[in-house]
Amino acid sequence: MWRRACANKKVSFWLLLFCTSWVQAIDLTGFESQLETITDAQAVFDFVESHAEDIESWPQNDQGMYYYRKGSALEGIGNTEAALASYTQAIKIFEQSTPPPEYLIHSLIERSYMKYVQTNDAEVYCGDRERALLIARQIEAQEALTRALIHMAFCYRTDRARFVEGLSLLEEALQAIEGHEQLKKYDGMIYNATGLMYRYNQIHDKAYEYLLKAHNAWAARNDIQDMFNMQHSLVGESVAMAKWEQAEQHVQQLFTLAESNPDFKDFHFFAYFNAGLVAYSRNNFNLAVKVLKQAESLYETTNEQYFVDRADEMLAIAYFRSGQIQDAIDKAADVLSNEAAEEGEQKPNLAMRAIADYGKGKYEQGLSHLWALVDSERDKRLEFIRYSSFAQAALFDQKLASYENAALEQALEINQLQLQAEQDKNSIFILTVVLVGLLAAGLIIWSVFLARSRKVYRTMAETDFLTGIASRRFTFEQGRSLVERALKNDKPVSVIIFDIDHFKQINDRYGHDVGDAAIVAIAQYSQRTLSDETLLGRIGGEEFLTILPDVKTDEALQIAEKLRKEIAALQVLSDHDSVRMTISAGIASSEKHMIDLEGLIQHADQALYTAKNQGRNQVLAA
């Protein structure tokens, strides 16, 4: 009431005097205190928006907090575009502070999520997450570090080449929350992310183990939505391992949660969807039809269009396999019609096209689609075989360390037995000698095996599987040593970060095989061009890091410019065309920035970011 009265221009002098004393700009503490009392999403946004003018008198970082809260409020009402802009404004403000505040990290994470929602393209949204993690490692902020580790790991869930790196980030996140009771709320998220890493690499027993841990963590807090989500995921993993009784138990848990929580409108749909999935996967097509029709009747209760489409596809095939041919033809036509109405490029739904062709009497064309489907499944299997050995080898390398620890424990036990033997020589002397000899021989054999195995897997871990140059982990380990040695000896050292311009367009237009060939060509050419003292590694999909000891900024610029010009002349052949590429590069040198490797990388990355924004195909120094 008083705000409306004070806004009226026709007020008395005394009322005006009252207004100037009463309507004072609220500070951040009061703003956030009042914000905590509001629960409705629209009301939260309205409150935040009403204080837009108040922040003009706030300190700089408090203004950044306002834009962070505004981004969250916009996200709450579904305006992702405006939320992204607000988080960007918060980032610009926080970047002006030294050292960087914790909420710079949170703002980068939230902006990356908005980019994920808009594009679902890791090349677009993961850059913010990398930067957030880099900053989080530099400041004492456990919660920000935990969030950054989890979100960065999600960037690697479909990148098989960085499988172990993703697991290491999640293991670090678990260590970060240890001993911090207020951070225990993240354990379910960490377990879930770990389970997804294993799932995408088709190591289903480990995926099931960690998804079950995530469920139990959320069950301890009675988080109904996340408990239900995990039961849904556990059904999928059980089906992947053909553990049918286990899958049925999780389906029953879904129905129990749906019955006891009627406020969650789509729970029944997902319960029937998973029941149908189990029946379909067991080739019980009559039961699958019955259950999936129940799911079909509940489509309007969910916004998850992917699962609606998947249910329709399973139902069409189940109709066909159970002899209900016309129903199958009609359902396949519905699926194809819905796909045609969707925007964007769609992969051909070969199974649905085969059924539709059968209904039209186009048997040869239908058979062609079935053969294409068989080829597609074969390619998936070959891809699984190609990468599963890498994933299993990486896991084996991790296990070696635990085996070595076990060997050390055995050695300690031997020492204890020897001490006991000295105390009672007359009774067990011969037995002790035999036992020690056998165990020592076993340890020697096991140590030789461990040494040889570790050498093989260490080489695999140090080498990028696609290009043959240094892996991301090895590049950072060796890079830190090179930078520390240069700084200690008062010698210059420079870093160059470069990546392929418009790489996503190359993949989309020519295919991932051509994209991989482009990465390999640039890596091999760069390796031949750079000196033996230079360290070159692949640190991302199409991103490379070069560390140049005893090189100053001017010389680094010359090296990078030479790479840029000569890479622009390279060609990669595709089926019908030759592909040319360009790169953008950012440079940072210790002569300007007397900091560690991570600091140099951060400056070089900012220069790369500027080069990209200024049109690409150029080199800039920080």
CATH architecture of the largest domain: 2-Layer Sandwich
Structural class by SSE content: mainly alpha
Average pLDDT, all residues = 83
| Spatial extent as radius of gyration | 30 Å
Overall body shape = globular
CATH superfamily membership of the largest domain, which one? Answer: Reverse transcriptase/Diguanylate cyclase domain
Q: Strand share of the residues?
A: 5-15%
Weakly predicted, low-confidence segments: 1-23, 389-408
Question: What is the tally of helical segments?
Answer: 26
The CATH first-level class of the largest domain comes to Alpha Beta
CATH topology of the largest domain: Alpha-Beta Plaits
Distance between the termini: 54 Å
- Most strands sheet: 5 strands, mixed
**Strand line-up across the major sheet:** 2-3-1-6-7
Q: Please give the domain count.
A: 4
Tell me the total number of β-strands.
Answer: 7
Helix content range: over 70%
Topology:
Elements: H1 2-7, H2 13-22, H3 28-35, H4 41-50, H5 60-76, H6 80-94, H7 102-119, H8 122-136, H9 142-155, H10 163-177, H11 187-200, H12 204-220, H13 224-240, H14 244-260, H15 267-281, H16 285-296, H17 305-321, H18 325-341, H19 350-359, H20 363-423, H21 425-462, H22 472-488, E1 493-500, H23 503-510, H24 512-529, E2 535-538, E3 543-549, H25 553-568, E4 571-573, E5 578-580, E6 583-589, H26 597-613, E7 619-621
Parallel strand pairs: 6-7
Antiparallel strand pairs: 1-3, 1-6, 2-3, 4-5
